[in-house]
Amino acid sequence: MGDERKPAPAWAVRLKAERNARFWSQKEMARQLHEAAPPEVEATFPSRASVIRLLRRPLRAVPLLTDVLSRYDTTHARELALYLSWLAVALADANEPEEAARQARRMLEMSAHVASDRISLRAKVVLDRLVPHREVREVRELLAGYPSDA
Q: What pTM does this model have?
């Protein structure tokens, strides 16, 4: 059985060659892909919000993640919990620990009945990211109810 995948479009091949020539990191490659991709193709990539979050631009990621979350209903608990986890981390990175704790609590409560290793790992990431803000009442209360080492 041969490889029946479609060849990569020329713009993607060009970017990959440039990545190799310039020693781009995966994060830089993701940023470049989002900028170069035609709109109909970009929809198949990871969300722009998650790419920006990965680039450690929390102030730009927060509105994008908030917009994505506004379009999800609670029947998609796993996906909603993942986006909430990314929002909580972005808020913590943007030095907004109170709101980060609120979104983390939403994520943890929503995912309590979702069997997912990925959600469990994200919960630990979120809680660990909030530990430096434990002097903030909302964070302290959250960490007391959901210890990250559990």
A: 0.65
Give which of 44, 116, 47 is closest to 107, Cα–Cα.
116
3-class DSSP string for 4-24: CCCCCCHHHHHHHHHHHHHCC
pLDDT in tens, 54-66: 556 677 777 777 7
Q: Which of 49, 83, 52, 55 is nearest to 69 (CA)?
A: 83
Please state the rounded mean pLDDT for residues 114-143.
93
**Which among 126, 123, 115, 41 has a CA at the least distance from the CA of 92?**
126
Amino acid identity for residue 46 in this structure: P
Query: With contact defined as beta carbons under 8 Å apart, do 124 and 143 qualify?
Result: no
Query: Are 76 and 98 in contact, with CB atoms under 8 Å apart?
Result: no
CB 68 within 8 A of CB 97: no
- Cα separations (Å) of 135 from 10, 40, 130? 52, 46, 10
Residue 27 to residue 61: CA distance in whole angstroms: 14
CA 53 – CA 38 distance, rounded (Å): 21
> 4: how many CB neighbours lie within 10 A of its CB?
5
